[in-house]
Amino acid sequence: MKLPTRADLLRFLSALLAALLLTLPSMAQVVSLPQMKTSQVSVSGLSSGGYMAVQYEVAFSASTMGAGVIAGGPYYCARGSVNTATNVCSCTASPFLCRVRPGGTNIPELVSTTAQNAASGGIDPTAGLAGHKVWLFSGKADSLVPQDVMNDLETYYRQYLPVANIFYKKDLQAQHTMPTDSYGNNCAKLGSPYISNCGFDAAGELLKWIYGSLNARAAGNAAGTFVEFDQAEFLPDPGTHGMAATGYLYIPPGCAGAGTGCRLHVVFHGCLQDPTNVGDQYIRHAGYNPWADSNRIVLLYPQTAPVYPLANPNACWDWFNYDDPRYAQKDGHQMAAVRRMVERLTGTGGPTPPPPPPPACITASNLDHVRAGRAHDNLFRALANGSNQNMGLDNIFIQTTLKRTGPNFYVIGSCP
Q1: Does one domain contain both 309 and 385?
Q2: Sign of the four-CA dihedral 270, 274, 277, 280
């Protein structure tokens, strides 16, 4: 991977200016993720979020009932290699380097790796997948995760699930995007926010496939409550592991409090769909909330953050080992963090996790701090989250040491 060019920095500044104009929940509203007693856990995701949904479902199959995967691929496809991730499991490096082809992900090898991870206890026994319901979507015009990759994903799932439990839609002329029937780009366009009006409600269709018959989606604006919660409770200093300081929970009518009798669905956004890049567009417009309102489905929207400029500049989920070599197993940093969130929301996690370790010091460029969620931008100045101390210009040239003294609270300090 290469250092950022002048064009990269200009694109970043443009995205930053756009983000300043988007409405996001206030940092003052950040709270602890509530204790609830939801059930019937399922997951879904787009792009890197699709890969993450597959990882999570396979690793925690005993406590998950199904998955919706849009433009993703089979479990452990990248094999811990960014080159494999971007040239075999997707075409995200360069079209001239892309080696995607039918059967190119080598499903027999991935099935063998899955079995090894299950035998070692790194993931749940694969027998837990047998009763799952899986919904797959691949756009015919997808240039980043072509249909050959999704076809391999269907082949992978057929090793564990009855064919009748798998639904695969691949006849829509859609680019690499989250399809909706009311919001976003033209369906054939590739570009931010990677949500497109394709005349097709992917969120609703995948929820209906996983859960069975559902009430018609609610009309009008979201009737539930968005909660911005502290992700550092589940992964100390999340920014160093590619996760944002905060995530979002959507609680629909009828699920306030313990949420007994309500279902839980985890939504993994894709690369470049984190708040830094698209504000709150994904959590508000991907199409899930109206179905949650009418069917008592609590939605967990965990959030990533860029690790800039080399490791993960596009705020992808870790499906190729940019943070943790055990990324696809139950104890991988991001996997375990989301699992602890799910346990909090289902009441299955035992005692509340201990608080994060003593204050940590992180020295990085101001731009890195902002993109990792330790600071925020205010008119091109970087301000430390919580204390709002002025760190100077938000760029890659000024280095600042921040000390974490509380959840999403940082002060300018020095490391011991």
Answers
A1: no
A2: positive
H-assigned helices in 40-171: 48-59, 82-87, 107-119, 147-157
Give exposure, 228-250, as e/b (b: 16+ Cβ within 10 Å). bbbbbbbbbbbbbbbbbbbbbbb
- Computed over every residue of the chain, the mean pLDDT equals 90
Question: Which residues fall within 8 angstroms of residue 379, CB to CB, at 6 or more apart?
Answer: none
Q: Is residue 19 part of a domain?
A: no
288: left (phi over 0), alpha (psi -120 to 50) or beta: alpha
Residue whose tokens read 């200016």: 17
Terminus-to-terminus CA distance in the chain, angstroms? 32
Q: Which of 176-190, 210-224, 363-377 has the lowest mean pLDDT?
A: 363-377
- Global model pTM greater than 0.90: no
Banded model confidence at residue 25, pLDDT cuts 50, 70, 90: very low
Domain stop point among 321, 346, 371: 346
Question: How far apart, in whole angstroms, are the C-alpha atoms of residue 327 and residue 338?
Answer: 12
Other Cβ atoms within 10 Å of 318 Cβ, number: 26
Same domain, 376 and 314: no
What's the domain range around 373?
358-412
Alpha carbon distance 196, 228 (integer Å): 25
- Residues marked active site are found at 47, 142, 176
108 and 166 part of one domain: yes
Residue 10 has pLDDT above 70, yes or no: no
